[in-house]
Amino acid sequence: MKENLELILLRVSQRPDIDKGELDVASRLIINSVCEGLEITRAGIWLYDENQTLVQCTLLIDKGNDLDNESLVLTRRDFPHYFEALDSGRTIAAHDAITDVATFEFAEVYLTPLGISSMLDVPIRHRGKMIGIICCEHQGKARQWLDDEMVFAASLADLYGRAISANERADYEQQLLEANRTLEQKVKDRTKELEAAQEKLVESEKMAALGNLVAGIAHEVNTPLGIALTSVSNCKEELKDIYRDFENGELTEEGFKDFEAICSEGLSLAETSLMRAANLVQDFKRTSADQTSLEIEEITLDEYIPRVCNPLKPMLRKEQIELSIDVPSDLVITTCPGIIAQLLTNLISNAQRHAFGPSVDNEVNKVSVSCGKSEKGIVISVQDNGKGIPAELHKKVFEPFYTTARDKGGTGLGLNILYNLVRQKFNGEIDLVSSPGEGTTITVCIPVES
Ligand SMILES: Nc1ncnc2c1ncn2[C@@H]1O[C@H](COP(=O)(O)OP(=O)(O)OP(=O)(O)O)[C@@H](O)[C@H]1O
Ligand SMILES: [Mg+2]
């Protein structure tokens, strides 16, 4: 190839404009270079429509100026010979365009008026498919297109294909960026919505819990207070009666003894009821888990845990329940021993009270306490092989005042106190695994300083 053509090609192919994705700039660069190399003043880019029934001009440069190309369309119907030549997919080198079999159809309407004598059309390919042509038009005396010139123009057409690819890539990148941006925004919006929903949920759960709590306290405390009140008013009536008898001189020894018996029974009942109410309030205060008396100490678990559990053994033995304790030796932790004692007594007495009964048919009723250390802290489990707790009650058993043993004096505060202690005071976790017939395991994990 002639050196100057080679140089132009090299220069164009090295220009970043080709691969930047800005097709307009690349098109202009290519057409201007075609004109420069072939020493012509008029050239353009024509692209097929989808069905290859026409070609439309996307850029036409004449003497360095862009010509209005919007209405420039050549259809297969009007120029069948030209399209036939295009269909071959090869370069059309019409040395004498007026008579050439591919281009003669343009003679009257186009070539002669514009003084075009020779035409060189090179195919533009994209992804292996011909998508259009670069059309080089020579004005003046007809010329013989040289092989070098044809190769040169074809190479520039290839560069145009490269520019289209870059343009597509840039489009995809833009779309991808846009999609990412939308996605990010969507995620942000959704997260916000979820957070708001969660806040609401927590708030409404809190309100519900508070409502239950107040209703529970009112109910629990009201019962003994009601009994005490009735008893005291009874005593007051009796006192009025006895005083009236006394005023009227009708008070007998027997009457007075009766009065004494009724009143002391009534007052005892009032006293126990008030005690119960007071205890309930005391218990209830404990649920707030805001106990200041939780002192931190260093304890050796295989000493401490048996020390807490062993005293419970006789009570369990009475009900044919076997207690086993499995604690690794030499596990020393710094924690609040009070909470460990409280959780153990609470869980073991729950097992004793609720897990077994006539419906449970075990060879041996067992409660096992085990303990270990995990990454998160100290893990203590109390497991029984009793009747278990159905899944729908797993949340409920931790609510204040939920009990299935009210008739036996249960208040339903045990697990709630434990829950609040572990979760709020110690930032730990409490986990219940249980199903009917499979027994119950409650595992508590308390973070400790290692
Ligand atoms: N090991 C268990 N097996 C079966 N059910 C259990 C077990 N532990 C607890 N429960 C159920 O959970 C309920 C709530 O327990 P929680 O300790 O909070 O209250 P309680 O033992 O009934 O009363 P309190 O502990 O306040 O005296 C119990 O009434 C019982 O129905
Ligand atoms: Mg309990």
UniProtKB/TrEMBL annotation:
- Glycoprotein among the record's keywords? no
List the EC numbers from the record.
Answer: 2.7.13.3
Q: Which Gene3D superfamilies does the record cross-reference, listed alphabetically?
A: 1.10.287.130, 3.30.450.40, Histidine kinase-like ATPase, C-terminal domain
The record's InterPro entries line, in alphabetical order, gives: GAF, GAF-like_dom_sf, HATPase_C_sf, HATPase_dom, His_kinase_dom, HisK_dim/P_dom, HisK_dim/P_sf, Sig_transdc_His_kin-like_C
Q: Does the keyword Kinase apply?
A: yes
Q: Which GO terms describe its molecular function?
A: phosphorelay sensor kinase activity
- For the protein in the UniProt heading, the enzyme class is transferase
- SMART domains, per database record: GAF, HATPase_c
Give residue ranges for domain Histidine kinase. 216-450
Name the reaction it catalyses. ATP + protein L-histidine = ADP + protein N-phospho-L-histidine
Fetch the Pfam families from UniProt. GAF, HATPase_c
Q: Which domain of life is it from?
A: Bacteria
| Segments forming a coiled coil | 169-207
Which keywords fit this entry according to its UniProt record?
Answer: Coiled coil, Kinase, Phosphoprotein, Transferase
Q: What is this protein called?
A: histidine kinase
Q: Which organism is it from?
A: Alteromonas marina
